[in-house]
Predict the structure.
Amino acid sequence: MSAMPDHGASALFISPHFDDVALSCGGTVALFASRGVSVHILTLFGGAPPEPLSPFARQQHRWRGLTDEAVIDIRRAEERAAAARLGAQASWLQVPDAIYRDTRYTSDDELFGALHPDDAPLIDTLLSETERFLDSLPHPVTVFVPLAIGNHVDHQIAYLLGQRLAQRHFSVWGYEDMPYAATEHGREAVTTRLQSRAGPPWIVLLTEELFRARLLAVQEYRSQLPFIFRNLGDAEEILRRYALEAGQGRLAERFWTVGASDYLDPWVIRP
């Protein structure tokens, strides 16, 4: 359990992609903002897709009904609108999403597998840029990163970044990645991976109003929702059920401490 950041302090929610923070912990973002905390959402992989796109990247666009030319403008507009719903500031770095990084990831198995060796230098790049961003915020700053439940490579990198920030003595907390955590495999991963973590989780209780703010923010991602929840069902039902489980019958979002030496399978570089 942790105290909420004070009025005048900052909270930085690090998001691998446009939508991850709103989906996973948007109620906490809205709560902090309502209490006078300076809240920022920083998307790590918000850069424009370089040409030429791989067939896998083009396929991802087609599945979502997006054109190759408009995708980044649409995603950024959705992110700004969602952040505004939550009372946060949206920013992003210029590193492209995994599906746009050459042909490192050309299938779902690769996208949700081990990190490609060419991605290893990204940790240092992202750390440098994130530290510059942190320097611009009122201190103290509490940092939130995904736990990489679901194992998407960009989420793995974001978690590794959180470890590096913990080494620099920032207070870093991990959020349970949605909707991955709501799947059967994800629930098992949450249980298995977090059993050995030091200390109890930080449970942030939400009012219905705060939970609705999260839902309204999630609904701004019109280009993504039909694809994200295609095999899960109704987005509100899924998010509400998980929030009630996290709060043991009360709406809540749950966070776990992230330390410099934490281990979260699989931190393996693909040969």
Remarks:
- The chain has one domain: 10-257.
- The CA atoms of residues 1 and 235 lie 28 Å apart.
